Amino acid sequence: PYECSVCKKTFNQSGNLKVHMRTHTCERPYECSVCKKTFNQIGNLTLKVHLQMHTVKRPYECSVCKKNFLNSGKLKLHMRTHTGERPQQCSVCKKNFFDSGKLKVHLQMHTVKRPYGCSGCKKRFFNTGNLKVHMRTHTGERPYECSVCKKNFLNSGKLKVHMQTHTGERPYECSVCKKTFNQSGNLKVHLQMHTVKRPYECSVCKKTFLNTGNLKRHMQMHNDKETI
């Protein structure tokens, strides 16, 4: 058998070991010719499936954001981003996830060897790239500089989000009310306003809320008006 030198996992074929090693090196050599997204495999589970997004008819439509899917199963998983449902639970730390795939990746935190250790806090990582980024939290290094205000950031992703404060770019739009956001995560949270049940109602104006805390803060607005 062929053994991984990092995590000691074994494989029957050298080709399978080669593909597996990319999970440690983060190498993604296969690029989609349409959107330039990269993948670590070209076969059935990665690039090949992704290409269907650009070519195959997607007849199942989300009633909230109008995004289309290849089958009802994928639509069902997607709906959880609107409802907040996380039915897959980690048996070790009890954290919940949208689907079994994300849970499977998470479980590696508890089981897979992390050979690259931080000399500062002893936290361990799967690959040297993640360790390098983490080390910046100790060294204070922020190599990505904003060309407008000269503020520095730990990684290119944080710089990209920051640049939107200068450009005013808000590329993520709610398909229901057309409100825009600068991050997809903020849009995801916002969409729950349109889909999740809001059982707590204001007795004054009938506006509804997700929890009692939000209702309590809202009621203060009415109380303040009465005291003016």
UniProtKB/TrEMBL annotation:
Where does the UniProt annotation locate this protein? Nucleus
Quick check: keyword Signal in the entry? no
Entry annotated with the keyword Metal-binding: yes
Q: Which GO MF terms does the UniProt record name?
A: DNA-binding transcription factor activity, RNA polymerase II-specific; RNA polymerase II transcription regulatory region sequence-specific DNA binding; zinc ion binding
Pfam families noted in UniProt: zf-C2H2, zf-C2H2_4, zf-C2H2_6
Q: Which UniProt keywords apply?
A: DNA-binding, Metal-binding, Nucleus, Repeat, Transcription, Transcription regulation, Zinc, Zinc-finger
Matching PROSITE patterns: ZINC_FINGER_C2H2_1 (PS00028), ZINC_FINGER_C2H2_2 (PS50157)
**Location (main, coarse):** nucleus
Gene Ontology, cellular component aspect: nucleus
Q: Where is the C2H2-type domain?
A: 2-29, 30-59, 60-87, 88-115, 116-143, 144-171, 172-199, 200-227
Give the family, as the similarity comment puts it.
Belongs to the krueppel C2H2-type zinc-finger protein family.
Q: Which PANTHER family match?
A: CHROMATIN-LINKED ADAPTOR FOR MSL PROTEINS, ISOFORM B (PTHR24381:SF393), ZINC FINGER PROTEIN (PTHR24381)
Q: What protein does this entry describe?
A: C2H2-type domain-containing protein
